Amino acid sequence: MMYLPRKQLLLCLLSLFVIFSCKQSDSGNGGGSTPTETTGGGGVIEEHTNTSGFVFKTISEYQFPDDPNTHIYEPRGIGGGGAMSGFSISPYSSLWFVGTDMGTLFRSINRGLSWIPVNHFQTTYSSDLDSAVGIGFSPDTDIVFHAPAGRTPMRSEDAGVTWSRITAFALASGEKIKYWRANSYDAKYMYAGTTTGLWQSRDAGVTWAKLSGVSGEARGTYIDYHTDGHIIYHATPTGIWKSVNQGSSFSRVYLPSGSTQIRAFTAGRDENKITFAFIDNNGASACSSVAGFANDWGATSMNAHYAHCGYVWIGNEAMSFTRTSKEGGDYIKMAENNSNIIVVTGSTEWIRQYGTKVWKSTDAGASWTLKLNQYNYDVTPYAPWGQDKLEYSAAALDIGWDDSGYESFDMHLRSAATMGGTGYYFLHTSKNGGDFWNAPFTKYADTGTRAKGKKWKSTGLEVTSVYRFKFHPTNSQIGYAAMADMGGMMTEDGGKTYRITKVAYNSNYDYAFDPNNDQIVFAVSGSQHDYPMEWHANAASGDEGGVYKSSNRGVSWTRISPNNSTFNRQFLSIGYDDNTNTLYAGAHGSGIARSTDGGSSWSFFNTGLPAGDKIIPQIEVDPDTGGVYALVTGNAPSFTNQASTGIYYLAPGGSSWTLLRGTVNRPAGVDANTKLWYYPTAFAVDFSNGSNRGTLYLVDYENNSNWLATGVWKSTDRGATWSRQMQFTHPTSVTLDQEDPSSVYVNGLHTVDGTWGNGGMYYTSNGGASWKKNTIPAYQSNARSATIDPNDRTQLFYTFFGSAMLYGPRPQ
Fold first, then answer.
1. Of all helices (H) and strands (E), which one includes residue 294?
2. DSSP reduced 3-state for 779
3. Partners of 792 in the beta sheet?
4. Coil/strand/helix, residue 355
5. Contact 356, 370 (CB under 8 A)
6. Is the CB of residue 350 less than 8 Å from the CB of residue 404?
7. Which interval of the chain is the signal sequence (predicted)?
8. What is the pLDDT of residue 53?
9. Which of 262, 527, 607, 615 has its CB 3.0 to 4.6 Å from that of 656, i.e. a possible disulfide?
């Protein structure tokens, strides 16, 4: 019995009432010279054959409808700005996908106009981009395929919203999927090229078998649609193989001569001819034009460039191949139904950002035109591709054009006009054959020409990390986000649009405000990102950073801490007492620096703090009294200060810090030999009206083998006694609603497969007596903090590691 995609089956059944017949869209059906309508791929197929016996069908792409349930939490940020891979274009619908090295798979149902993250409880994306895989598409548009890091094959029957593991796909140890390939006219056939061979499914991807006729690393697979059944062409480094019986057996039809190997392979057939193309491994010759830069780049970079370069070869139906003079890098692409258009890219390993080049041939490789070169090293000064041919972004204009090539590159399998590629900063796509390239990860939200310092808004594709988000205390339209890699961003419209405000180094870690002047903002910055994750939790070494001030809402910054060996270091936190014009800055190892004159002079003020390295991840100033609270965490990696970690208090006019840590009650089930509070990461003080400042919250982060002993802690007697409210493995923030102190939000990292501990986005509305988890946002593994919207207290902002921010309802 022939397999029919669900949409096709439904349409066929409906058509019985009209024409009493339904033609299956099987690859073995001919159709003669008379066009016949069948259905598949979510739309109408026009089918006919030419005299050569090959089938040609025009597939009308299915347009997915909008789903309002995906907009409960809206993305906020500048868009993109990080490493992406696995860019994938469905040839059968409006569906696109892309993954990020921060662990999220994104889907677009409108060809990149907006993006929706796939819930982490369903699937994630591997940070190992070397093993990244694109998404596979079936002509049954609801069915798609994914393989995180190439090792865990998964299948979705709802266009990528939910996912299930494919159990009948037994990859060998170390074998990884490299790509997926569909039969456009028969949804039951699906293929997966791997590092050791080619797999096939004959039941729409439910079960899989490895084809025995070919072996070796897959370099590309092409399906040729003949009336007698589809023909498979499959390339390995050592040749091109052909099967005329749907994969039951293969014969080699092309053997490269000498030491030549195939690095990437593609093909396309139309009613005129078939064209085959591949890139070889003769990089030293094909890319000899860069030899003159060897002294500048060194042998290692030059050898990597040559290893990822080769000549483009063009072949015909007789498998006669001719080497062209065109060099190619990592990707060569054709639409399966076009024999003339070929696109070739550079490589991420190429020097001088030549890897971002994209060339196009419209005459089957006879001539080539450069269609994109993101940043041109061959002009003085260096210059980006023109704005008349490329959409610029905040990541490019404010941070830099730093991509070296494409981690992934895809072409629409049935339309050579649509293509795109991702790098470590950008996703650029074209829908007109490369004449113009969009930046679909961001949306310009300003006036005039795109330029540095302009405003942007998110399309949903967010890759940046936001440590915390703070609003100005007297102007709630102004807010600042502390970020990794980008530095930071700020909003002047309550969080709708943003512009980059980078201080000096990799990360802006924190901000403090002058409540009397909304133009003034203080910031601390540092050269090392991602605190407190992994080794970044250790006391900083070899770091740089400082304390900065802006008097124009972050348009420009002035260093106010000394730029010397004592103060040129990473700072993580800052507080400001406007009544005394005093600044407190928490360093990543040196304790607390203080200025009593608004930043003109500085000294470290560590009286009362423990000896050794002193990491200060948070400082808060009492808005009423000017009392200062500072968190001292563990002096990793030595952890010699475990008994002295916690919240320290400096009374107004005080001369020494006092630890607010008395008895820390051991939670039930925690081993008696396990020490507590090795690594606190955040705290909150009840500053609400009428508060006696006795209610404190603290969260600590699993470190130094204190397994499952961390969590959310509360004191109602100003630190004399502490009790754990909830186990939480890697919390990074705790937020107390100062207008309703019974409402508290705790956020942090979570191992979503459930194998270890607890985490995510938790909240309580009864002071911690009970806690609930917010499972609606898609980002379930990488939460960072929460900020209540001062303009609408029914809403909040969540910040994330690698996913910027989400805005939506406060969970109840």
1. helix 294-307
2. coil
3. none
4. helix
5. no
6. yes
7. 1-24
8. 84
9. 607
Pairing of strands 663-664, 721-727: parallel
| Integer Cα distance of 610 and 661 in angstroms | 13
Q: In the prediction, which pLDDT does 7 show?
A: 39
Categorise residue 246: left if φ over 0, alpha if ψ from -120 to 50, beta otherwise: left
84: its two tokens: 């992406």
Task: Spell out the alpha helix ranges (H) of 245-293.
Answer: 283-286
Within 8 A by CB and 6+ apart from 320, the residues are none
- Residue 28: both structure tokens together: 């073995």
| Peptide bond preceding 652 in cis form (omega within 30 of 0) | no
Q: Per the structure block, which two tokens stand in for 387?
A: 């704005």
* pLDDT computed for residue 274 by the predictor: 98
Is the CB of residue 206 less than 8 Å from the CB of residue 155? yes
What pTM, to 2 d.p., does this model score?
0.91
CB atoms within 10 A of CB 600: 9
Q: Residue 527 phi/psi, 5° resolution?
A: -85, -15
pLDDT computed for residue 573 by the predictor: 99
Taking CA atoms, 510 is separated from 49, 148, 225, 461, 521, in Å, by 65, 34, 59, 24, 10
Rg (the chain; Cα; Å): 29
CA separation for the pair 710, 642 (Å, rounded): 13
**H or E segment to which residue 12 belongs:** helix 6-19
Q: Which residues contact 420 (CB under 8 A, 6 or more apart)?
A: 87, 89, 112, 409, 410, 427, 428, 429, 430
Q: Which of 552, 595, 603 is nearest to 576 (CA)?
A: 595
- Beta partners for 546? 525
Of 529, 608, 535, 523, which Cα lies nearest the Cα of 560? Answer: 523
267: three-class secondary structure by DSSP = strand
Closest to 710 (Cα-Cα) out of 698, 721, 692? 698
C-alpha 332/C-alpha 165 separation (Å) is 30
> Do the Cβ atoms of 240 and 265 come closer than 8 Å?
yes
What is the DSSP secondary structure assignment for residue 15, as one 8-state letter?
Answer: H
For residue 297, what is the enclosing H or E element? Answer: helix 294-307
Check residue 425 and report its DSSP letter. S
How many Å apart are CA 425 and CA 81, to the nearest integer?
5
Q: Are 598 and 535 in contact (CB under 8 A)?
A: no
Residue 272: C-alpha distances to residues 36, 48, 269, 275, 338 (Å): 21, 14, 8, 10, 9
Q: Give the separation between CA 595 and CA 17, rounded to whole angstroms.
A: 83
Give the span between the Cα atoms of 521 and 244, in whole angstroms: 70
**Cα angle: 325, vertex 329, 334; to 5 degrees:** 80
| Residues recorded for the chain | 812
- Among left, alpha and beta (phi > 0; psi -120 to 50; other), residue 440 is alpha
* DSSP state letter for 388: T
Unique residue bearing structure tokens 């070889």: 280
Residue with tokens 């948070």: 618
DSSP annotation string for 731-773: EEEEEE-TTSTT-EEEEEE--TTSSS---EEEEESSTTSS-EE
- Site of tokens 């080497």: 323
Average pLDDT for runs of 10 along the chain of length 812: 36 31 31 30 45 81 89 94 96 98 96 96 92 96 97 97 97 98 97 99 98 97 94 98 96 97 98 98 98 98 99 98 98 98 99 99 99 98 98 97 97 98 97 98 98 97 97 99 97 98 97 98 98 96 96 99 98 98 99 98 99 98 98 98 99 98 97 97 98 98 96 99 98 99 98 91 98 97 98 99 97 92
Please, which residues bridge with residue 736 across strands?
744
User: CA nearest 385: which of 350, 352, 356?
Assistant: 356
pLDDT, position 227: 87
> What separation in angstroms does the CA of 592 have from each of 308, 650, 661, 792?
49, 12, 19, 35
Asked if 416 contacts 433 with a C-beta cutoff of 8 angstroms, the reply is: yes
Among residues 643, 644, 567, which one has the least CA distance to residue 599? 567
